[in-house]
Amino acid sequence: MASRFWTQGGDSDTEEEEEENSEYDGSDAEQPAGDNSGAAAGSRYLRGQASDSDDSDGQHRVVKSARDKRFDEMAATVDQMKNAMKINDWVSLQESFEKINKQLEKVVRVTESVKVPNLYIKALVMLEDFLAQALANKDAKKKMSSSNAKALNSMKQKLKKNNKQYEEIIAKYREMPESEDDGTADEDEESDSEVEEDPSKIVMSDEENEDDDDDDEDGHDEATEGDGVWERKMSKKDKLMDKQFMKDPSEITWDIVNQKLKEIVAARGKKGTGRVEQVEQLTFLTRVAKTPAQKLEILFSVISSQFDINPSLLGHMPINVWKKCVGNMLLALDILEQYPNIVVDDTVEPEENETQKGADHNGTIRVWGNLVAFLDRLDSEFFKSLQCIDPYTREYVERLRDEPLFFVIAQNVQDYLERIGDFKASSKVALRRLELIYYKPQEVYDAMRKLAEQTGTEDGLGNGDESEKNLSMEENRGPPVFVSIPELVPRKPTFSESSRALVDALVSLIYSYGDERTKARAMLCDIYHHAIFDEFSIARDLLLMSHLQDGIQLMDISSQILFNRVMAQLGLCAFRAGLIQEAHGCLFELYQGGRVKELLAQGFSQNRYHEKTPEQEKAERRRQMPYHMHINLELLEATHLISAMLLEVPNMAATAYDPKRKPISKTFRRLLEVSERQTFMGPPESVRDHVMAATRALSKGDYQKAFDVISSLEIWKLLRNCDSILQMVKSKIKEEALRTYLFAFASCYDSLSLEQLTSMFDLSKAHAHSIVSKMMVMEELQASWDQPTKCLVFHNLEQTRLQSLLFQMADKLVILAENNERAFEVRTGGGLEGLPPKRREGQDYTAYGANRWQDNSASGVSQGRQGSGYGGRLGYNGRTGGSAQAGAGSRGAGGHYGSMGRTSYRATAMRASQVEGFAGMVNLSRAGRI
Amino acid sequence: MANHDLTSRIAPQLDRHLVFPLLEFLQERELYPNDEILKAKIQLLSHTNMVDYAMDIHKALYHTEDVPQAMVDRRVEVVSRLKSLEESAAPLISFLQDANLVQELRPDRQYNIQMLHDRFQIGADQIEALYQYAKFQFECGNYSGAADYLYQYRALCTNSERSLSALWGKLAAEILMQNWDVALEELNRLKEIIDSKSFSSPLNQLQNRIWLMHWSLFIFFNHENGRNSIIDLFFQDRYLNAIQTNAHHLLRYLATAVIVNKRRRNMLKELVKVIQQEQHCYKDPITELLESLYVNYDFDEAQKKLKECEQVILNDPFLGKRVGDSNFATVPLRDEFLENTRLFIFETYCRIHRCIDISVLAEKLNLNMTYDESLAWITNLIRNSKLEAKIDAALGTVTMPVVHQNVHEQIIESMKNLNTRTYLLAKNIVEPAQVAQASR
């Protein structure tokens, strides 16, 4: 472009240069203000760099100073290098490198300065980076031809030597790369990503980039000059447009505006169309729109082009643009509010002159547009910006403060949609709103409400001022607004007193009108919200009634993440309510694969065995939750491990010599094994260490020490009512310590008085009695009470070695017989009567297990979350689950299964096989433990 | 004791007319001020056609002879409407009253309608009028008439929706006439329809099930075989789901039925589980009793709850039904309940104890007996071989022998059926082979 600029301009006019610079400033805010002349000169050429490499390099400049000539040569060389890099041609790269070094000498001679031109430094940096990249890429290196590889190696050495001279400057440059370079690099990237996104678009723009700049000017003379510099033309055109429209407001007709709009819209997406400028142009047009409908149409274009400003999938829309976009949306809503006969529609292509109909036109006017899509985009941009911004900065907080702004717009859109009776769309909007509040506890919600009220008043003024200022500024430049729209829709969000009420309202709207996905997501949000508010039973019932866990794998990944978050939150909620079993049930699957971060989209987990492709990584990055929505992972881990400990320690004690019984939490067992293998136990540091230390104490029955270790965890401070929760944890630990003690040391006692037990474990008599009685009934403990003396009398049923071996042999024989029967069954197809149904279940369980191990990373996010299993209560169907479990427990399973869904079946089978070790009373007692 | 009263939760699920027996019962128990109940009754009647009755109550409530003008007007309106409905339904009714003509009706509904239309000029309008008339009769409190008409209507009706509501009406009428056998039949018929019919929405179906369960309470606690049926019905998955979703209070009746029914002890486990699941939304002394007994093994608590249960049962319109003369009334259900609960407690208690002091036992069981009496009670149990125990008279204790299966027995037990299984297997393999050989 620079070259063309020169052709056109003839000589280097400082004024124009400045203008150009300022132009650049406009688009690229980071341009350092005071570059010295050398840098300025450099930068001028750098712009040359920015031009596409396929621009003809061979063009000869007409008049040039020697200095410029040298620079131009250098720039050409850099271009060559770039080309070489593209095709990975190290031989030519090496040549270019030598050439540029020679040129450098010349340049330095010409300019008579000690300073090395920036262009050169930039080339060096570029080379260095490319080299590093090439070296890192071993595969590609192997594939290289021998000459190429040789060139690469020599290049490496040369560059190293060469760069030593400029070390300082390079470092400086790297530290603060000039914005322009950044900009160009970015632009490259962006256009790259554009290529990925939309090949058709790029093809189109390739074809048309020759004339795209001109076709929007009505026969303007600049067209003759060939491709001009867009920026410059812009300013000229602006003036021209003003001229055109300034003439006389009355002379501006609908047609002119319409035509102009079409031109601008046609230029959209083409290469070389400045996105920012387009927005400005369109914004200007909104003021000269003749009819409200037209204004609306233009506004929609403005909004769309505002979305276009950031084409990359990874980056986010600039925040100020986002805010302006919100303003435009509000304006659009104002229009819609004032002229109820205007209908927004994106299904039918409106007639050509639909928007010509004035405000007084009665009958509907159709305008093409989709409010919900705009809103969706706004929301996702907001989300993305929060993803990108570093959460520890002030910027993040500032950004969060914009949330009420989005709320306003969402609320207004929803109101509007409800007014026109489009409940389907309004339910979508409601979901967007819901997803902004579902994770907020009441305190945060209150804070937001307060903020909204504050900023509502402030913003009302502030925004008003600002917009007035803007307006007045624009007013100076352009004609007065033709169609003025008063602010009709409220600019302040209204929040109900409790977040529950708001959630209820939104959710009920969605339940009645939303589509399946919207409903499912709303349900998940609802459950999450209930869980935050410590309403475990309601949340659980909702989850089970909705049968969401059955179908969650089939849903999109973001919903699966939401589901995982819900399960995590549900687990925390259960824990707070003292429902250890449920808490463990909710959480253990999250921790099974050690990928909890990934499952909750709160970070990346490294997988040793599986490298991720860049696409996967990118996709994962896009899924990340913004920081303020995170669930505290330490708290989650502590909750999980403590629940596992409370369940597992007595289980281990009870089954110490019984290899048949399965561990409740394999994850926990593994961790315990790891920690036991350590030769030296340091004081606990991480959450895991703490729990392991507590486990060691607990397995000895030392409840006090176990509790001390647990309570020394930092995370308890995060809980609202941490005292009562600690109290709960303490009493649970006492209970489990008692149980563990009895399991472990029953064989050492002949009798044990209740009083001794109560004093040992600091429990009330009734409580201890109840626990021990329960163990007796469940036949976990071979003992009975002696009521008059209040003693526990143990019936020691020690098995001799021979006897226990005999039992094992008997078990094996039973298995042998079963295997025989099964083999026979397979062979003949017919069953033998008298085959215990238990086996079938076992088979099913293994099948389930096999299923689980096949998980690949794509479906991995949700993998195996199904059947989060609380003792068989799965779904309302889960009642069946319950009864089936009862059956399984007492070894009479069967008939119930037929009616159940596959998932709950599996889960039940799983639970059942977990439980089956216990004797008949198990279910009752399981229930008892709950 | 009004805090465990479920009337307010049950009433919305019932027909207006079915609430009357409940209110009568409450009036009798004097749980609430009489005036309140009378007012409730008037309110209840305001949407029925039993205006005379409403007037009576009004007089009793305000101790006046005057009745509000609204009621008088309503009476006039009701009478005139009755007349007009009677007229429009007259042809069909006269036809139906003639036994000879009714003989001509056949099981084929289409034929009947055709015949009525051809020979008696009775069309769809008259049939519809019959329904309206029957409904009106029901609202006037003439249940037997309504039941008859509805029965006949159902024979002629083609609209399934209408037929369903006619069935509900019939059921209500039969319940109110206390024809338990017929009512049970109707109930089963209705249940079939509800379960089979593809209802417009699952929600609707759920609602119908809940109604059905509530209405069935009248029948089950009065019909002789009701206690079995209630367990059968309520434990069906779909109905248990309905209870857990929207009618938790029905757990009380289910629990009571299970406790009282000696033969359905196996349901207890499941019941306890359900109670556990729903304990956050519903609890009353009866469910709490089961919980303390089978979940927490807290016998003191159970004993306390047992006392409360007695009151609850006495105050419950369905459970506290009195039998006997006016001066010596007993509540049979209560007695059974207490007896069974005692057994439960005793059983569980024995299970975890080796040695129990009899006097303590008597106290735990809430037996207001002397030492000797409770001794006799226990002896009785032992004699009936319900309990394996010995009484140590000198110490005043009951001693349970610790029975443990011998290790040898256990091993033999676990291997016992291996023999037969292997034999069976061998036979199954060998036999076809032999057959094959023989045939060769």
Automatic annotation (TrEMBL), chain A:
<feature type="compositionally biased region" description="Acidic residues">
    <location>
        <begin position="178"/>
        <end position="197"/>
    </location>
</feature>
<feature type="domain" description="PCI">
    <location>
        <begin position="627"/>
        <end position="799"/>
    </location>
</feature>
<keyword id="KW-0963">Cytoplasm</keyword>
<feature type="compositionally biased region" description="Gly residues">
    <location>
        <begin position="866"/>
        <end position="876"/>
    </location>
</feature>
<feature type="region of interest" description="Disordered">
    <location>
        <begin position="1"/>
        <end position="69"/>
    </location>
</feature>
<feature type="compositionally biased region" description="Low complexity">
    <location>
        <begin position="145"/>
        <end position="156"/>
    </location>
</feature>
<dbReference type="InterPro" id="IPR000717">
    <property type="entry name" value="PCI_dom"/>
</dbReference>
<dbReference type="InterPro" id="IPR027516">
    <property type="entry name" value="EIF3C"/>
</dbReference>
<keyword id="KW-0648">Protein biosynthesis</keyword>
<dbReference type="InterPro" id="IPR008905">
    <property type="entry name" value="EIF3C_N_dom"/>
</dbReference>
<dbReference type="GO" id="GO:0003743">
    <property type="term" value="F:translation initiation factor activity"/>
</dbReference>
<feature type="region of interest" description="Disordered">
    <location>
        <begin position="856"/>
        <end position="876"/>
    </location>
</feature>
<feature type="compositionally biased region" description="Acidic residues">
    <location>
        <begin position="12"/>
        <end position="28"/>
    </location>
</feature>
<dbReference type="GO" id="GO:0005852">
    <property type="term" value="C:eukaryotic translation initiation factor 3 complex"/>
</dbReference>
<feature type="compositionally biased region" description="Basic and acidic residues">
    <location>
        <begin position="57"/>
        <end position="69"/>
    </location>
</feature>
<dbReference type="GO" id="GO:0003723">
    <property type="term" value="F:RNA binding"/>
</dbReference>
<dbReference type="GO" id="GO:0033290">
    <property type="term" value="C:eukaryotic 48S preinitiation complex"/>
</dbReference>
<feature type="compositionally biased region" description="Acidic residues">
    <location>
        <begin position="205"/>
        <end position="220"/>
    </location>
</feature>
<feature type="region of interest" description="Disordered">
    <location>
        <begin position="174"/>
        <end position="234"/>
    </location>
</feature>
<comment type="subunit">
    <text>Component of the eukaryotic translation initiation factor 3 (eIF-3) complex.</text>
</comment>
<dbReference type="GO" id="GO:0001732">
    <property type="term" value="P:formation of cytoplasmic translation initiation complex"/>
</dbReference>
<comment type="similarity">
    <text>Belongs to the eIF-3 subunit C family.</text>
</comment>
TrEMBL record, chain B:
<dbReference type="GO" id="GO:0033290">
    <property type="term" value="C:eukaryotic 48S preinitiation complex"/>
</dbReference>
<dbReference type="GO" id="GO:0003743">
    <property type="term" value="F:translation initiation factor activity"/>
</dbReference>
<dbReference type="InterPro" id="IPR019010">
    <property type="entry name" value="eIF3e_N"/>
</dbReference>
<feature type="domain" description="PCI">
    <location>
        <begin position="219"/>
        <end position="405"/>
    </location>
</feature>
<protein>
    <recommendedName>
        <fullName>Eukaryotic translation initiation factor 3 subunit E</fullName>
    </recommendedName>
</protein>
<dbReference type="Pfam" id="PF09440">
    <property type="entry name" value="eIF3_N"/>
</dbReference>
<comment type="subunit">
    <text>Component of the eukaryotic translation initiation factor 3 (eIF-3) complex.</text>
</comment>
<dbReference type="Pfam" id="PF01399">
    <property type="entry name" value="PCI"/>
</dbReference>
<dbReference type="InterPro" id="IPR000717">
    <property type="entry name" value="PCI_dom"/>
</dbReference>
<comment type="similarity">
    <text>Belongs to the eIF-3 subunit E family.</text>
</comment>
<comment type="function">
    <text>Component of the eukaryotic translation initiation factor 3 (eIF-3) complex, which is involved in protein synthesis of a specialized repertoire of mRNAs and, together with other initiation factors, stimulates binding of mRNA and methionyl-tRNAi to the 40S ribosome. The eIF-3 complex specifically targets and initiates translation of a subset of mRNAs involved in cell proliferation.</text>
</comment>
<dbReference type="InterPro" id="IPR016650">
    <property type="entry name" value="eIF3e"/>
</dbReference>
<keyword id="KW-0648">Protein biosynthesis</keyword>
<dbReference type="GO" id="GO:0001732">
    <property type="term" value="P:formation of cytoplasmic translation initiation complex"/>
</dbReference>
<dbReference type="GO" id="GO:0016282">
    <property type="term" value="C:eukaryotic 43S preinitiation complex"/>
</dbReference>
<keyword id="KW-0963">Cytoplasm</keyword>
<dbReference type="GO" id="GO:0071540">
    <property type="term" value="C:eukaryotic translation initiation factor 3 complex, eIF3e"/>
</dbReference>
<keyword id="KW-0396">Initiation factor</keyword>
